Amino acid sequence: MYQESLYQFLSQKINDRNIPFNEEESITFLMRISSNFDVIHHLYLTIYQDHPKRSENFSLLTEILIDGFLKRPQQLRQLDAQKKGGMPWFTSSELVGMSLYVDRFCLDLSDLRQKLNYLLELGVNFVHLMPLMKSPQEASDGGYAVSDFRQVEPRFGTMAELELLVSEMHSKGMYIMLDIVLNHTSDQHEWARRASAGEEQYEQYFYIYPDREVPDVFEKTMPDIFPDSSPGSFTFDVQSGKWVMSVFNSYQWDLNYTNPEVFVRMLEHILFYANLGVDVLRIDAPAFIWKKIGTACQNLPEAHTILQLIKHCVQSVAPGMALLGEAIVAPAEIMKYFGTGSFMGRECDLAYNATQMALQWDALATGDVRVMMAAQRELLKKPLGTTWITYTRCHDDIGLGYDDSMIQEAGFQPMRHREFLKAYYSGQFPGSPARGALFGVNPKTNDARISGTLASLCGLESALEKNQAEDVELSIRKIILMQAQSLFIGGIPVLFYGDECGYLNDYSYQKDPSKNYDNRWMHRPAINWERNQYRLQKGSIEFQIFSKTQKLIRIRKGNSIFSDTANLVWLSMQNIHIAGFKRSVASESIICLFNFSDKETGLTWYALKEAGWPEQTKIKDLWSGLEFQVGKDDQHLVFQPYQFMVLVKN
Ligand code: GLC
Ligand code: GLC
Predict the structure, then answer these.
(1) Is the CB of residue 218 less than 8 Å from the CB of residue 245?
(2) What is the pTM of this model?
């Protein structure tokens, strides 16, 4: 809706800033901001209409947007322009990612520059650096408790080194993802310190109460996120004698987004990251940013409005930076992070496909893909032009967050099914080869999640202990099967560092008091570069896993069909052990089939015929190189335990 006064307001602000109107980039910026401005205004008012300081903060927001553009470096403006046109750049099959801790993967930021070639050797060209802004070493939650959003943690290096790394990555054709920890700050952040000292302006940045009255009401409906290590959602702050909301760890104080000043100042940080050259901004824990008494304080409509507002601001200033919403929530909820109604496709550009990730673990434990299949109807609703981050492991635990109805649809009893999965992966189930641990055990709800590295959960740790060559081989097959599905299903696959060489659980965190309360550290290894050299030694475990991962990546990058153009259909299930989908563009198609069971099993050729490949079609498996011909309906294509195939017409 055109509002004249609003445009006069914008024009005035622009004139005040002396934007050089003769430059093409300035003109495109003016066009972008003008076309987004009333949506920005509308979304802003949806949240802050009744706030006494709404006007001054809106004015500040407008200035920050204009400054954000003025400060945007020339090369980044050019990159913005290059990324435009066609399907969004982040849907491309050319992208393959890795997530890593700078100080655990190598030494620091400058050492990481020396390691870029290692990533490229593997085929990784998209890197998620785990949080690297300043964070108290003893109370850091792996960097997710930020004490300064603008300074790199000194152990990792300097801002100048970060800038150098980003420009070197860009010059090598690589992309970078960084976090903005939106929901909370460290209790050591200046805002928190000043709030704790009783400065009213900063008290309003957080949820702070003089006694337990309001916290008790909130806590009635707020689930515990870290029930064992940090139960409850409030912390007593000794200095102020008050109670502070801290949904995650007690040292992570929740920011209060009902205060527009908080929004505006965090948006300023977002644009600062954009101007560092971030390609994808990972918005940490967005599901939690709005709180309301009487609710779970997750996934509330206002949280979506704030994300849409961020999207439109970023779109105006730094259109080349995409947004990833790190919401690890139920399948129906996750869809909403891509935007709903008239905002469909205009909220987050990417989200984690945590449901698919967890369902792959489900299928691997049960050898049965029916629950995975039951969830797909929901997952296929993702709008065109948005995409997933696909993954098998990350720095967090594996939550079994899919719906009970999906488990039921597959014919299982939800409670017992989840109990089995937890027992299986924590190694308690008799005969289970998995070596993981339960995380976030909540005796009240019987809920728990799972920690452990890809390799240990796939049985490599126990196989090596028992010195069983056959089991070692089987575990490697499982590892590659899991990675294969994540690489071919659509979205940016993001590997977790260490998994490319089969790192096992690292139990040393148990001796470190800053980590021992959080067993997610068991799957955050410190890389031993001498060991990673074994990737070049034929026959070693590192070699097998690394070279197979490399090959999967080559297959993905070599076939643009794997770009996410919403071109996936699941094949109807002809065998409960085998999941299969077809990806196609025009008359070309690739069929991927994954056997999740530990037994040899056969798929009747009818399955391929039904997928549109008739009898006698000549086909080839890009993975094994084997060639076949589609046989009769009642004959079988045979799969070895955990075998998968990537079939093309030959
Ligand atoms: C996200 C991070 C997780 C962290 C939490 C709190 O979920 O992935 O590691 O503990 O946010 O910041
Ligand atoms: C919860 C949150 C998720 C976070 C995780 C950290 O599951 O929903 O966002 O990654 O905790 O362990």
Answers:
(1) yes
(2) 0.96
